[in-house]
């Protein structure tokens, strides 16, 4: 078993020799330095278990020494050696990282009592740190597993809608990406940005309760069919209600409010302005953008320029004006996301924009 190493930093040669003799008789391997710089130079190339440190070295205070030792020898047990009997200074040294305090003239029994105590505290500190690191790694791995399982569950729920309506399956995946980018641009914290990436794809989960004859109908819906279609917001909210998961709580808000409009003309509750949760306002914008830029069973996709014109037309009426400004500042990134899945997309070049308006059910998708 290797011997424990001690570095003595003291400018009194006689004390250094005395301490070195006592410590070597006790089985320690010792080195000494007459000043701070040579002591730190030694620590650059050697690892030590204990540092005995004179509280008054030329050119540097004990406080400064402790601060440097915390960086350059963080695992060493530091004993302050001083001629001053000052309880306040001793306590202050302990708060700065010293594990012992020895008063000059140094008595052999006092030195070893302080060393034994400091080494035990050092051992416990190192063990506690290693245990903490192991626990943190275990928690990190378990959290990653839980997050992966959570995310898989979300996308399996979303697939339940996607299998019935292929365009919806593509649409919900893109919605998460748009929402993540817009939320980050607005200034959401990273944790919430990640949450909306997972929550936004569930905005249309309530469509699982809408009959196929309505969900997949080619052509405009009747007033009665539109009323049934609009119930997907309430169905989605009920499906996601009561969860303790922050992601599912956000998803519930989104499912309920992504068809609300800034001026209060949306559904299901006619909320207006800031009464609409921010997540719902974000998804309202990206949902419409994606719906207009991709084909639906009842119409082709609009041209890019027409999509942008229609989005601007909803500023301050259908959409939060500031959020829309932020969204439109990201047009290159948003169009890149839109192009990731191009199932069924058709640019319409031979029809006037005004002619296409009657073919849409509204600026808001169903």
UniProtKB/TrEMBL annotation:
Which residues carry the post-translational modification 4-aspartylphosphate, per the record?
54
From the record, give the transmembrane residue ranges. Answer: none
> What domain of life?
Bacteria
List the keywords (alphabetical): Phosphoprotein
Q: Note the SMART domains from the entry.
A: HDc, REC
Q: Please report the stretch or stretches of sequence annotated as the HD-GYP domain.
A: 146-343
Cross-referenced Pfam families, in alphabetical order? Answer: HD_5, Response_reg
What are its GO biological-process terms?
A: phosphorelay signal transduction system
The record's listing under PROSITE patterns reads: HD_GYP, RESPONSE_REGULATORY
Q: Where is the Response regulatory domain?
A: 5-119
The molecule here is called Response regulator
| Protein's organism | Lacipirellula parvula
Its lineage opens with: Bacteria, Pseudomonadati, Planctomycetota, Planctomycetia, Pirellulales
């Amino acid at each position: 078993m290797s011997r424990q190493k001690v570095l003595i930093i003291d400018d009194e040669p006689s004390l250094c020799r005395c301490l070195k003799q006592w410590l070597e008789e006790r089985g320690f391997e010792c080195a000494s330095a007459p000043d701070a710089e040579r002591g730190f130079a030694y620590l650059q190339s050697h690892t030590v278990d204990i540092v005995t440190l004179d509280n008054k070295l030329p050119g540097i205070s004990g406080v400064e020494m402790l601060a440097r030792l915390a960086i350059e020898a963080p695992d060493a047990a530091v004993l302050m050696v001083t001629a001053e009997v000052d309880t306040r200074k001793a306590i202050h040294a302990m708060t700065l990282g010293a594990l012992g305090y020895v008063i000059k003239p140094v008595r052999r029994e006092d030195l070893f009592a302080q060393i034994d105590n400091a080494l035990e505290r050092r051992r416990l500190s190192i063990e506690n740190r290693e245990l903490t690191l192991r626990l943190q790694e275990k928690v990190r791995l378990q959290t990653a597993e839980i997050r992966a399982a959570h995310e898989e569950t979300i996308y399996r729920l979303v697939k339940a809608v996607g299998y019935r309506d292929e365009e919806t399956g593509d649409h919900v995946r893109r919605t998460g990406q748009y929402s993540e980018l817009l939320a980050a641009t607005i200034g959401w914290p990273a944790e919430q940005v990640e949450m909306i990436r997972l929550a936004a794809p569930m905005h249309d989960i309530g469509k699982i309760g809408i009959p196929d004859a309505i969900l997949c109908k080619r052509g405009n819906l009747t007033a009665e069919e539109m009323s049934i279609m609009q119930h997907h917001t309430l169905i989605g909210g009920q499906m996601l209600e009561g969860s303790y998961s922050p992601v599912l709580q956000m998803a519930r808000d989104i499912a309920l409010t992504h068809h609300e409009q800034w001026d209060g003309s949306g559904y299901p509750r006619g909320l207006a302005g800031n009464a609409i949760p921010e997540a719902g306002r974000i998804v309202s914008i990206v949902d419409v953008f994606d719906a207009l830029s991709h084909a639906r069973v009842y119409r082709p996709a609009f041209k890019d320029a027409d999509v942008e014109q229609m989005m601007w037309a909803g500023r301050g009426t259908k959409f939060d004006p500031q959020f829309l400004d932020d969204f439109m500042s990201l047009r290159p990134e948003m169009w890149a996301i839109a192009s990731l899945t191009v199932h069924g997309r058709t640019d319409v070049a031979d029809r006037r924009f005004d002619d296409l308006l009657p073919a849409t059910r509204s600026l808001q998708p169903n």
